[in-house]
Every structure is written in structure tokens, then in C-alpha cells.
Amino acid sequence: MADVKGVEATYIDFTRKTAKYPKRREKEYLMIGLMNEAGEVGGAFKKEIRDHVDNTDLIIDEMGDVLWYLTRLCDVYGLKISDLMLNNIDKLFQRMTPEEAKVWRAENGGY
């Protein structure tokens, strides 16, 4: 299995090098870009429904674009994607009953 932390650090650096937008409007640009790319994921899926086709490859490509914008936003806010994942897990655990959390931990080796 690949070194996930190494891949994450390399990807963050890659997004920094491929970012081309006005730095003074960085957050705005990235937020709009993220919304746009998420919409393109949805649009590709909508066409699957309408046209009865498999758009898996297009959806995966568009999700990659979502990842790029999300990674850039995380970097701007001083986070890594893995930090975001852990923050979200914590948030979702808060919504669980203590019993649900206990079952999940037992079935998934902790956290």
C-alpha cells in the first residue's frame, strides 16, 4: 500500500504548483471553483439517469477536480485533507448515541 501521508504531501505541493488564480481573491476563487466542480459531478450523474449511460469515468475525473479545489481550500485554511476527515469523524461521532459509537468502534477497530 502506498504511503498515504507521502501521497497527501505530494498532492498538496502539486496543487500549489498548478494553482493559477489571483492570490488576492484566492478564497473566493477556490470556493466558486469547488461549487462549480461539484456541480459538474452532479451533472455527469444526472446524464446517467437521463441517458441510461455509464458516466463513471467522467464522474471520477470531475471528483478529481473537486479534490483539487478542496485540497487548495484546506491548504489555505492550514489543514490537510486527513485533518478534515478526522474533524468530520469527530463531528459525526457527536451525533451518535453512546451505544452507536461503541458499536461502530467495536466493528471498526477503534477511533
Q: How would you describe the overall organization of this protein?
A:
It is a single chain. The protein is mainly alpha-helical and 111 residues long. It has 2 domains: 4-79, Helix Hairpins, CATH 1.10.287; 81-111. The protein has helices at 4-18, 26-51, 56-76, 81-95, 98-108. Helix 1 packs across helix 3. The longest helix is centred in the middle third of the chain and has 26 residues, at 26-51.
At a glance:
This protein has 111 residues and is an all-alpha fold. The chain has helices at 4-18, 26-51, 56-76, 81-95, 98-108.
Search tags:
single chain, 111 residues, mainly alpha, Helix Hairpins, 2 domains
User: CATH topology of the largest domain, which one?
Assistant: Helix Hairpins
The rounded Rg comes to 17 Å
Cα distance spanning the termini: 21 Å
The fraction of residues in strands falls at: under 5%
The structural class is mainly alpha
* Overall 3D form: globular
Q: Summarize the main sheet.
A: none
**Mean pLDDT across all residues, rounded?**
95
* Unreliable residue stretches: none
Count of the domains:
2
User: What series of H and E elements makes up the topology?
Assistant: HHHHH
Continuous helix count? 5
Instruction: Name the CATH class of the largest domain.
Output: Mainly Alpha
CATH architecture of the largest domain: Orthogonal Bundle
Number of strands: 0
The amount of helix comes to over 70%
